[in-house]
């Protein structure tokens, strides 16, 4: 799949565009990675470029990759809040798949910097105005649920929403990023 | 009121085949929506048997009793029947639910006259005739408040674009294939929704820990089927996308290609009308009108070409594409040739 409508946004992921890069993990260490670039567009003129980076082994601390925005084109300057800052880590499971935590972009107060916080499917459904789980399944998610449901975690993060994907399949993680990080800003700023 | 199920056709060229079809769909959609509008009002005001009452009234009148219009079944979606009843009878109940004034009735007469001339082949189907149909029907539809008004406006716009030569198809892709792709995307979406709903049901059953073994087995089977349907939908979509690439490549190969020109040199031809947006970091272009990537239409050729074009336009930007896939961009007050999607 190369194209997916996510509310007013359209995610476009070219085939054959994956390239080798040196990625910088959360803790600053450099990793030789494969990078798949993509674009998120909307009728309002958004043309955001995002990437999915994946490396092996999963280091440091189980991080096997990341998804983040790299260029906002002529889109609203508010999307600068995403560039290089708002990243979702890609982590491996013990049975060869990968999972990403679903955290939603949010702003504490008008004018404040956009950050991210935990969310739930109900909130994503409302944001999307459709079933977020169905959208992620369409994008290739093997399962969507809490970390307890997906990973049998019993720690204090067990109630956080996550999605499980096949390893090295960029489309689903890019769809998750578009849904949770780009769409909330678009709804708040552009749709108003 | 529901909009007409007949979509007004927008011509992509000036063949008689397309233009005649456009004129027919304008008249058919107008008849359908006018009939629905009148029927809705008349049923509400006079009950469901209003049409029988009208027919009886006309059959009792020596002036109208032998007219074929009232001797056979009266089709409330037939534009000819609706206009004849309205225009030829000052006591027509239709008039109660239509705008008043001589201008409106003159417009209806023009539509009736247009329809008669068309049906008796008095005029050839030309762009001018299509425009006339869209304008006169569009004005009447607007006065009544019919949903098809916007379709008439779109048709006028398309005719103007064809007359000016400024119309370029969104992508070099057959309409049938584009429609088919859209249907396949919808199928993929609904099959994913079915899987999501069944997975939610399975989780609910697990949480309840009911002793519903049979229900669980049935649900597991349905989930398996839904997953298979989802995968099949995705596979079909991928196959259709590959077919689309092949069709687009063939259409490019049949289009005029300007030879003996090097990338970086001034473009000698007309400026192509189709524009795509070259991305800055992604080796691809976005067709903002089609909301799709150029690589969805041209495959790896688009990726390779975009990498070359980015050397000239490192921040991306608008690129104009010929039907043959030759790219041109404005630079330094002139137009520079960037290269082509396909080597020739």
The ordered H/E elements of chain A are EEEEEEEEEEHHEHEH
Oligomerization category of the chains in this entry = heterodimer
Sequence stretches where pLDDT stays below 50 over 5 or more residues of chain A:
none
Note the gap between the termini of chain B: 55 Å
Number of strands of chain B: 6
The secondary-structure class of chain A comes to alpha+beta
User: Biggest interface and which pair forms it?
Assistant: A-B, 30 and 35 residues
| Number of distinct beta strands of chain A | 12
- End-to-end C-alpha gap of chain A: 31 Å
Broad structural category of chain B: alpha+beta
Question: What kind of sheet is the major sheet of chain A?
Answer: 10 strands, antiparallel
Descriptive account of the structure:
The complex is a heterodimer of chains A (192) and B (344). By secondary structure, chain A is α+β, with helices and mostly antiparallel strands. Helix content of chain A is 21%, strand content 39%. In chain A, the strands form two sheets. In chain A, strands 1, 2, 3, 4, 5, 6, 7, 8, 11 and 12 form a ten-stranded antiparallel beta sheet that branches. In chain A, helix 2 (132-138) packs antiparallel against helix 4 (171-190). In chain B, strands 3-2-1-4-5-6 form a six-stranded antiparallel beta sheet. The model of chain B has no long low-confidence stretch (mean pLDDT 86). Chains A and B meet through strand 4, strand 5, helix 2 and strand 11 of A and helix 8, helix 9, strand 3 and helix 11 of B.
């Amino acid at each position: 799949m190369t194209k997916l409508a996510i509310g007013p946004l359209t995610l476009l992921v070219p085939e054959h565009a994956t390239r080798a890069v040196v990625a910088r993990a959360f803790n600053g260490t450099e990793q030789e990675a494969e990078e798949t670039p993509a674009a998120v567009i909307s009728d309002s003129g958004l043309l955001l470029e995002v990437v999915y980076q994946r490396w092996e082994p999963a280091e440091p601390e189980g991080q096997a990759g990341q998804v983040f925005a790299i260029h906002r084109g002529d889109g609203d300057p508010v999307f600068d809040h995403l560039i290089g800052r708002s990243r979702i880590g890609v982590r491996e499971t013990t049975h060869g798949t990968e999972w990403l935590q679903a955290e939603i972009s949010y702003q504490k107060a008008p004018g404040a910097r956009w950050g991210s916080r935990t969310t739930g499917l109900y909130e994503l459904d409302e944001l999307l105005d459709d079933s977020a789980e169905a959208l992620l399944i369409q994008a290739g998610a093997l399962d969507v649920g809490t970390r307890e449901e997906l990973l049998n975690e019993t720690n204090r993060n067990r109630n956080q929403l996550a999605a499980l994907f096949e390893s090295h399949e960029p489309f689903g993680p890019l769809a998750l990023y578009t849904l949770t990080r780009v769409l909330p800003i678009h709804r708040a700023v552009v749709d108003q | 009121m529901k909009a007409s199920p007949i979509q007004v056709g927008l011509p992509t060229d000036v063949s008689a085949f397309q233009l005649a079809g456009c004129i027919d769909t304008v008249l058919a959609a107008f008849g359908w929506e006018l009939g629905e509008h009148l029927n809705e009002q008349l049923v509400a005001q006079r009950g469901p048997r209003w049409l029988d009452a009208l027919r009886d009234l006309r059959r009792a009148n020596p002036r109208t009793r032998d007219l074929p219009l009232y001797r056979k079944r009266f089709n409330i979606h037939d534009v000819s029947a609706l206009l004849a009843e309205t225009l030829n009878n000052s006591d027509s109940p239709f008039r109660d639910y239509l705008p008043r004034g001589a201008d409106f009735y003159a417009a209806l007469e023009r539509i009736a006259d247009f329809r008669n001339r068309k049906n008796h082949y008095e005029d050839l189907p030309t762009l001018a005739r299509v425009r006339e149909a869209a304008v006169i029907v569009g004005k009447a539809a607007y006065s009544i408040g019919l949903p098809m008004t916007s379709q008439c406006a779109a048709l006028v716009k398309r005719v103007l674009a064809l007359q000016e030569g400024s119309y370029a198809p969104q992508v070099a892709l057959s309409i049938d294939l584009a429609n088919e792709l859209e249907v396949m995307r919808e199928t993929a979406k609904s099959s994913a929704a079915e899987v999501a709903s069944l997975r939610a049901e399975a989780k609910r059953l697990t949480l309840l820990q009911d002793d519903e073994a049979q229900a669980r087995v049935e649900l597991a089977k349905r989930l398996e089927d839904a997953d298979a349907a989802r995968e099949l939908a995705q596979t079909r979509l991928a196959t259709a996308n590959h077919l689309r690439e092949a069709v687009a490549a063939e259409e490019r190969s049949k289009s005029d290609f300007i030879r003996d020109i090097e990338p970086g040199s001034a473009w000698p031809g007309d400026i192509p009308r189709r524009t795509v947006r070259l991305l800055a970091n992604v080796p691809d272009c976005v067709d903002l009108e089609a909301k799709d990537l150029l690589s969805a239409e041209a495959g790896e050729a688009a990726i390779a070409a975009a990498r070359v074009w980015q050397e000239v336009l490192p921040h991306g930007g608008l690129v104009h594409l010929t039907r043959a896939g030759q790219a041109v961009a404005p630079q330094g007050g002139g137009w520079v040739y960037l290269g082509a999607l396909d080597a020739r």
